[in-house]
């Protein structure tokens, strides 16, 4: 069996930056175990599987598809960058004729649309809470393995996503404080075994001057519990960050930078219906076929 596969760098307009995702187009039913084996073989933070929902569906003409995401170790309920990559394959490679695509996922229906040179994703918006019970987890995770001696200004927890958000102090004037931070994500696995945390977000308020002026906030994201020591640019983390920074900054539209080694930029717009639009660019870097 031949399965068309693509590698797309998401949230960037340049190859070899942003966040790479593999995208597989499934014409037929795929054995459950093969999803995991293919994701492990691709060995990227996410491999997306687009499947036809009905026998008569067509990747060029249909507007609704099934979509699943797998890390090298397990399936996840939401992945923004692999959804953007999936939409890019359908819009730009399959030349899908629809203006809006709908994906049926574990997180409900997600929509993607083309707006000039960006793909806009309609994603859930996840709230964060200053839960006292998470303070202990914070010190076990961020103090020892993540932020070291840096000052933490705020701590929030997203129960819907099991993501812990750690905001560094506004006193740090340089975004590079976050970029240059040496994080030992492998230690998170021994520090947190309760299952209450599946991802750690480190974030810093944007600055009005310097190399990356104009960004409202910066972030980095770590998910070793899902086999990802550091995810370069993370749409699902920004579904959490968007609600937090909108509250903090009093803004509905924001520009974000995830300052990992590869780096990527996200345009954010909170919607009146309680969801969030996250937009990014992309670059297709590989086309081929898996032989199974």
TrEMBL record:
Q: Name one Pfam family in it.
A: PhzC-PhzF
Q: Which GO terms describe its molecular function?
A: isomerase activity
Q: Which keywords does this chain's UniProt record carry?
A: Isomerase
Gene Ontology cellular-component terms for this entry are: cytoplasm
What residues form the catalytic site here?
46
Q: Does the keyword Isomerase apply?
A: yes
* The UniProt record lists the keyword Nucleus: no
**PANTHER family, per database record:** PHENAZINE BIOSYNTHESIS PROTEIN, PHENAZINE BIOSYNTHESIS-LIKE DOMAIN-CONTAINING PROTEIN
Family note:
Belongs to the PhzF family.
Protein's recorded name:
PBLD protein
Source species of the chain: Ceyx cyanopectus (Indigo-banded kingfisher)
């Amino acid at each position: 069996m031949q399965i068309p596969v693509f590698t797309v760098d998401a949230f960037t307009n340049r190859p070899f930056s942003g966040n790479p995702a593999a995208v597989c187009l499934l014409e037929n039913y795929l054995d459950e175990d093969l999803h995991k084996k293919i994701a492990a073989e691709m060995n990227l933070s996410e491999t997306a599987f687009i499947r036809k929902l009905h026998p008569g569906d067509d990747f060029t003409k249909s507007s609704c598809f099934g979509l699943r995401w797998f890390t090298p170790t397990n399936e996840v309920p939401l992945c923004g960058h692999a959804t953007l990559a999936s939409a890019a394959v359908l819009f730009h490679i399959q030349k899908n004729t629809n203006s809006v695509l709908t994906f049926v996922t574990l997180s409900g229906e997600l929509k993607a649309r083309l707006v000039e040179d960006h793909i806009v994703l309609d994603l859930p918006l996840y709230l964060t809470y200053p839960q006292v019970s998470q303070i202990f987890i914070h010190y076990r995770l961020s103090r020892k393995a993540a932020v070291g001696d840096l000052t933490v200004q705020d701590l929030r927890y997203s129960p819907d996503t099991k993501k812990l958000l750690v905001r560094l102090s506004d006193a740090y004037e340089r975004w590079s404080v976050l970029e240059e931070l040496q994080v030992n994500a492998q230690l998170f696995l021994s520090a947190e075994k309760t299952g209450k945390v599946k991802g750690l977000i480190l974030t810093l308020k944007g600055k009005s001057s310097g190399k990356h002026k104009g960004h409202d906030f910066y972030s980095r994201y770590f998910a070793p519990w899902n086999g990802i020591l550091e995810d370069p640019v993370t749409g699902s983390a920004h579904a959490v960050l968007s609600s937090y920074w909108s509250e903090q900054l009093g803004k509905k539209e924001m520009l974000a930078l995830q300052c990992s080694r590869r780096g990527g930029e996200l345009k954010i717009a909170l919607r009146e219906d309680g969801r969030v639009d996250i937009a990014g660019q992309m670059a297709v870097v590989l086309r081929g076929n898996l032989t199974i």
